[in-house]
Amino acid sequence: MKDSDLTERRLSGELVYDGRFIRVWRDAVRLPDGSATVREYVRHPGAVAIVALFDDGRVLMERQHRFPHGRDFIELPAGKLEANEPHFETAKRELLEETGYVAAEWTRLALIHPTIAYSDEGIELWLARGLEKREAKLDTGEFLEVLALPFEETVAMIRDGRITDGKTVAGLLWVKAFLGGASPAAPR
Ligand SMILES: [Mg+2]
Question: Is the CB of residue 27 less than 8 Å from the CB of residue 39?
Answer without folding.
Answer: yes
